[in-house]
Input
Amino acid sequence: MPLFNRNTMGLVYFIILCYLFLGIAIVADIFMEAIEVITSQTRVVEIIEPSTGKRRNIDVPVWNATLANLTLMALGSSAPEIFLSVLETVTTLGEPAGELGPSTIVGSAAFNLLMISAASVVAVGEKPKKILDLGVFFTTAIFSIFAYIWLYACLSDLTGSENQIRSGEAGLTLFYFILLCTLAFAADKFNAYILKKRQTQEELEEEQRQ
Output
């Protein structure tokens, strides 16, 4: 015989669940603030202005913005589900994997890819917005779609290990992430080179007009 009826126990469980969610939100917020402090660090670099030849110091970010978003910022925003998946895996070694870990990882990625993109477009409204770095955008978009296809291939008969992840598949997954970071970084640097070249050309044309 339970001490309280179902409605009372449901309310108590709901309050406890909200309390746990609040704790996770606080920890994740502190973790994200720490990552933002790390990625916002700058260093002083001396440059020479092409037009005047004068030397001046400027602050340059230590972290590349693209790499920071793909590594540290992604780790910070996905830390709860990553730790939850790792905890479930470690506590169920030698047993069939549960659905909690993969569901949270795939669900979070799908939410970020679909819901956040849709909310951002709705928030912008009729104001025109332009993606300055299409190279990085296309790289991450292609790899996002490829990640779902690769996950399905690993868990199906296509790789010969249905409902199992082998060490080779895990190693390839890690390699694909490193490849994503490398290609995105290269696309970011190429875009910065093009923008700088275009800006220099515009400055030269402006000097010729004067």
